Amino acid sequence: MATLLEGVGKNTLSYLDYIGNLNVQLWQTLRALGASLPLIGNRYRWKEAVRQMLEIGVDALPMVGLMAMSTGFILAMQGASELRRFGAIHYVIDLVAVGFTRELGPLLTAIAVSGRSGSAFAAEIGTMEVTEEIDSLRVMAFDPVEFLLAPKYLAALIAVPCLSVVSNLCGIFAGGLFMFFSTRLGLVLYLRYVLDSIALRDVVSGLIKSVAFATIIAHVGCLEGFRVRGGPDAVGRSTTSAVVRSTFLVVIADAVFTAIFYFTGKM
Amino acid sequence: MPIISIRDLVVEYDGRRILDKLNLDIQQGETMVLLGGSGCGKSTLLRQIIGLERPKSGSVLIKGNDIGCCSPAELNRIRRSIGVAFQSAALFNSLSVEDNIALPLREHTNLAPSIIDLMVWMKLLVVGLEDFGKMPPKELSGGMKKRAAVARAMALDPEILVFDEPSAGLDPIVAADLDELILLLKQVFGVTVIVVTHELPSAYRIADRIAMLYNGSFLAVGTKDEIRASQNPHVRQFLDRVPDDMAKTPAIPAFFERYLEEN
After folding, report:
1. Is the domain of B44 the same as that of B114?
2. Number of folded domains in chain B?
3. Residue B3 CA to its chain's centroid (Å)
4. Which of A39, A215, B259, B263 is 20 to 30 Å apart from A234, CA to CA?
């Protein structure tokens, strides 16, 4: 019994320590973020941020688009099979449109970015730790947080919400295709119904979630990289851990945000 | 005044003492070799000197400034006067060799790009890599990587050059080339050089003074001849390449005796 309690206590402290480290790192990054901004910051950091935006955003477009279309199709088909029984198949439009803008678009994007970019951040920084490149940055009077993390964070803050919007559009388009083939509803009319069913606050709540997810993915990925000690096997473990932990925290954050929006009447 | 002063330096990891009250002065323009076997604490001492870690107690003074308790801005100012060539070279694989060298110049100076290009070419020329500037570090041999790391360490014309195991993993000819490069840099630029190594021929070739570390303490500090003449048993064991007494680990002979009896 004592061992069980010890284990629970140890794990709780370890998670609290991890969350504390994430917060410290977030604070350090926010302080260093100015250096990555265009015009007022360091042009090399901004250049790196743009490169990261292309990697996080543009390179992930086909994957996120295809995932969103598949999920939009699945959602429409599953919704239609139930709603058809009540003669309410037109509610599929609301289900897909509202479901994607509020929830599925940001969540799917976050899961895709976590798998692609979160793991890449951990691998890149972890390898740099192992090969003494981080030490090398420090002794050359560079702040690793400003040099490595801030451009990635800025890129994620811009790319993930943009990807979420693309994901919303793809999911809604897939719903439209389903409605066209199952009920011969024209795409223009479908889009009109979509615009009637979603409100601006739905889009804004989705974008707020996207920003939170981007923060989680960038910081968990980089923290896992900075925590690497040892050799290449530790880098492998850190990439796995980055994906698992960021996906877990994204889902928890999603639940928290959804509850906040629900109970404050914003949904 | 010495350029580097180490005063009563104590370093502990998880309660285990790694460096025990070290005292050492390194004079401007001299080459100090930190010599010792594996695990004796020489890399830990190096990390203290370049300000990567903070000591439990004691201090490291660079030009009179205690790098353990100065502000981050002050620490960065001091770091710009130190060039470090790491054991693994630690070149940025995402950049070409010349971009690696240009990085500190672009970020820490206001020099025009054409001047930076010229300076990078000069650094590459000094280390004999003028034809390899456009290459990514992963395409260089071990010796070339170390030379490129030296060129990058020299980028800001530092007063102190630090080498961590420069000969590790290199064949004797390339290692000797690197020793000559260190001597040349000292002669031409008048820098203070600190070299961490366990390679005796290299230490004898480049050192003005040698500090011999054993179990976190200095056994002997002196010129090459003084170290050679030392009668300290641990120094002699290191210099004469005498293996540790097997009697200290009785389990191993006992294991083999038992094994032979049983078979």
Report:
1. no
2. 2
3. 16
4. A215
Q: Are residues B130 and B26 in the same domain?
A: no
Q: Is B148 on the interface with A (CB under 8 A)?
A: no
Indicate whether B60 and B126 sit together in one domain: no
Q: Do B84 and A142 touch (CB under 8 A)?
A: no
pLDDT tens, chain B, 263 aa long = 889 999 999 999 988 999 999 999 999 999 999 998 888 888 899 999 999 999 999 999 999 899 988 888 899 999 999 999 998 899 998 899 999 999 999 999 999 999 999 999 999 998 889 999 999 999 999 889 999 999 999 999 999 999 998 888 788 888 888 899 899 989 888 999 999 988 888 999 999 999 999 988 998 899 999 998 888 888 888 888 888 765 456 677 777 888 888 87
Q: Which of A129, A140, A146 best tests the B interface by mutation, with the highest count of B CBs <10 A?
A: A140
Q: How far apart are CA B258 and CA B83, in angstroms?
A: 54
> Which of B52, B80, B103 is nearest residue A135 as measured by Cβ atoms?
B52
Is residue B169 assigned to a domain? yes
Tokens at residue B215, please? 């179990």
Domain-ending residue, one of B106, B140, B157: B157
| DSSP helix/strand/coil, B163 | strand
Q: Is this complex scored with an ipTM above 0.90?
A: no
CA distance A38 to chain B (A): 16
CA A252 vs. chain centroid, Å, equals 12
Domain that holds residue B153: 92-157
- The pairing of beta strand B65-66 with beta strand B57-62: antiparallel
Return the number of CB contacts < 8 Å for A and B.
42
